[in-house]
Amino acid sequence: MELISLHGTDDRLYELVARLVMSPDVLRQNNNYPFKTTPHHVWHICLRDGDVVGFMPAKKSNGGLYIDNYYIRDDDHDVLDSLIEHVLSSTDKVVTALCHKRHTDAFRSHDFITCTVFAQYNKMQAIRREEGSL
């Protein structure tokens, strides 16, 4: 597996994910919620043998990073874990994720806590602490 990060308007991003973000099957897996990007996004992408098997766009804000949609082919646990670790390693700030209910345990295993429970999603946060602080 290869993990890369691309700016939200990088031409290579579009080459890698365009077919996926417009795929009816991928959109259905994402509860028909469209994927969005802006200059404030960084896309964390997981490749296996050159094929995109998952991506997790994270929007930068003053409060940290916010993940509000992502794709994991076949709900592959290893891909999801790798992407979560990749996002967490990219910042020392708070990471907030609106995650699918089926992925709650995976986020919890990376020290995310549930903040809000919705019908199809859980809003979760991982608070990054400086070394030596409680």
Key phrases:
single chain, 134 residues, alpha+beta
The total of beta strands comes to 8
The coarse silhouette is globular
Major sheet attributes: 8 strands, mixed
> Poorly predicted ranges (pLDDT <50, ≥5 residues)?
none
Task: Please sum up the structure shown.
The protein has 134 residues and is of the alpha+beta class. The protein has four helices and eight strands, in the order E-H-H-E-E-E-E-H-E-H-E-E.
Describe this structure in words.
- There is one protein chain.
- This protein is α+β, with helices and mostly antiparallel strands and 134 residues long.
- It is 26% helix and 36% strand.
- It contains four helices and eight strands.
- The chain has helices spanning 11-21, 24-29, 77-89, 104-108; strands at residues 2-7, 41-48, 51-61, 64-67, 71-72, 95-100, 113-117, 121-126.
- Strands 1, 2, 3, 4, 5, 6, 7 and 8 form an eight-stranded mixed beta sheet that branches.
- Strand 2 (41-48) and strand 3 form a beta hairpin.
- The longest helix is centred in the middle third of the chain and has 13 residues, at 77-89.
- The chain is globular and about 35 Å long.
